[in-house]
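dumping the sequnces here before i forget
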Amino acid sequence: MAHRQTPIDDTYFAGERAGSFTVVGSPVARSDARGHVTGRTEFFEDVRPAGLLHLKMHRSARHHARLVTVDTAAARAVPGVVAVLTHQDIPNNLYTPLKLIGVTPDDEPVLAVDKVRYLGEPIVAVVAETEAAALAGAAAVTVDYDDLPAVFDVEEALAEGAPLVNEYQGNNYFTYEGHHCRRVRFGDVDKAFAAADHVFEWRYQSSPIEQAPVETTGCVVVPQPDGRLRIHSDTQACFFTLDNTALILESEFNKLRIVGGTVGGGFGGKVDVVVEPVACVAAMVTHRPVKFVYGRYEEMQVSSPRAAERIYLKDGVSADGRILARQVRAYIDAGAYSRHTPYGTTKAAAHFPGPYAIPNVSIDCHCVFTNRTPSSAMRGFGVTIGDFALESQMDRIARALDLDPLRLRLINAYRDGDMKAHRKLAEGTALVEVIQKAADLVGHDLPEPYRSMSSTDRKGR
Amino acid sequence: MLSHVHLPGSAAEAADLLRNGGWLVGGGTVVMPRVNTGAVPVDSLVSLRRAGLDDITVDGRRASIGAAATLADVGEHDALAFLLPVIRSIASPPVRNLATVGGNLVVGQPYGDLAVALLALDARVEVLGADGVREVGVAELTVGGAEVLTAVHLDVPDSGTWFYRKAMRRRHNSAAIVTVAAVVAVGDGVVRQARIALGGLAPRPVRAPAAERVLLGQPFDRPTVEAAASAARQGVTPLDDAYASAWYRDRVLPVHVRRALLGED
Amino acid sequence: MPSRIVTLTVNDADHELIATPGLTLLAALRDALGLTAAKRGCAQGTCGSCVVLLDERAVPACLVPVETVDGAAVRTLEGVAAGGELDEVQSAFLDGFATQCGFCTSGMIMAAEALLADNPSPSRQDVVEAISGNVCRCTGYEPIVAAVLDAARRRAGRTA
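..and the predicted 3d for all of it:
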């Protein structure tokens, strides 16, 4: 069936391409689709080992509080409850998923120790014969809190006197090689602003965005006769999960086996290694298979969303629309713990000038800790919200200068060989051609100088 | 935790069982999410699935709908075709195959659009309790822990007198921003009867008496309807929730009253 | 806890199972009978991943206490087509790229089967309404709507 059969437009880059490119734009049957339409694709929760136990979490009812007492006696007394786990049961209770690529410090307890830093933070895991018993057990845990002031806004978190969110970090910001933010410096923005005909500064911000996969985050851990643990998981990152879980369990990597690869929607929301470690401990303690899967409420409340961001963009622009300087201050809300947001913030810093050749750039990207749900990966994290801000900025500049927004972009578009602000040479660029094609598709008038621009040379710059 | 799911054969038997506690279950669309996802504070469910409360009878203009009739049952009944737009504005087809008329009457706004329609229709609700059967209007309806809502009685409105509109975030399967249901009858060129009910604004469906007064005795034309639509805001303090802010609901309420009564898209 | 024996006719075969109080039809199908095509996405009737046919009507199986439907006939995705053949809806989904992660697919197909049984030549709007209780986070729905319309045409072509 000819579905979405889109031929390649080979009028662009004619001299650069060899071969016929028959795959791109042609339909290729999915290898898993037959399993999907017959219901035979096996997702992790379709694994139903005999003797399966269910794990449910007692979670923080506070945004920020000290734990005075945590009483699990009533939970243990619920009929069907088999085990109750606290931080003392986790071999290495402190982690950060990005330690594997050298991001430190470890800043997040697997189960809360003396303090909770966001609403829904896991405190006690209850393992029971049935899901209902596990839910009843988790509800029967009682926690006395000593409330602490909470901070939910990135700039308030950085202000003098703000409550300290994460003691392991020591500040309400992530420290990048001794610096309070991730910085990019290129040229001299102050001089360029002084010389510019116009300076525009606007603010942009976004809320957290939940990936909302239809299959919630979860795993089934099955102890093997040889002492290994087989982990059926919907993680998006099998090996990453295996390594992190082993570090938390203080186990040899080869004692764990991950069975995965079938993910009922991830969109970045299933890379945080949050359910597997506790489920593994529960399986080790009980010597039985254990399932830990988020309910829909948990998926919405505690699974890490795309970070909220606040972005200030200041541009110095010449009268004819050339962007001479761009200064960016971005505040990216990590929530209470690092997860993947220090990395996303670095991506943002590298991305921020956008696909434009700007000779003077200064970027400060702050990864900020607040008492909100930890944020993490989601489709182009660190980049997507920045692009919303950048392209909104371009449109507003065009409007302010009464310029055509496409021509403004073409004048400033990066070309092959341009040095980007973070010292990467631009290559394989195609923004010019994409804009030209888009203009054609919507019937937007582009005069000749703009028509003859090319990503491969400097004409019209 | 649950230790019993009862399947009483009659409303009286259900009411008896409820005297020992437990939750009444109609279609399960409200109760089962709680059972599935949290610690349940009761040890039994009392299901109405076998209680014989799903009959729908229409005799001339008089209609009686059993409380356990599903929304789909109502939507498929030929003599109740005027309610089909109401039914189709609620949830999705699979949920409508379970959700019951009785459940829709007791669920809080911004859900319960059929309840808004039944209020506009001046329907009477039959409730069975320890002291026998009582009949109440939709606006005054409260159901005690050991009571069973058994049936709804209503008059099918005359052709051309029924108006309904539900504003929501999406075309299908979304809760009410504002729901408007009305019976407006015209005689000798002027409005003789007007009952306007609103949903999405307060925990229970409410009437719009000020708007009704504006209509009564006046020609049923655009200027009168616009005046009535403005008057509908009187005494209303809308809900603030994830579907819409109170500010937004207040602002668009007259628009949707007008569109409902003029049949505008 | 007095469990009950419940009888269901699932995909034309009679089954008996032991139902603990409050066990849902979804859990009965998946855990007792091993029919895992229907998925648990929300357990509150809002995602549609667990839609099956209960006495020929599409319902979210997570909302039905199985004890209340003793004796009912249930059809799941496993029972849609016999002998390894795909039916028109399945093959239209397969050919039309109407699946990505596959998690919503079972519920989507069952909602579509209910629609087509009732309305063999639905409009686009009919299809949109029929799947309005089924969440898909991958496709953006367009290929699914197209596949259901395509399935209707295929079925009409076969019976013509």
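Chain C touches chain B through 32 residues (CB under 8 Å).
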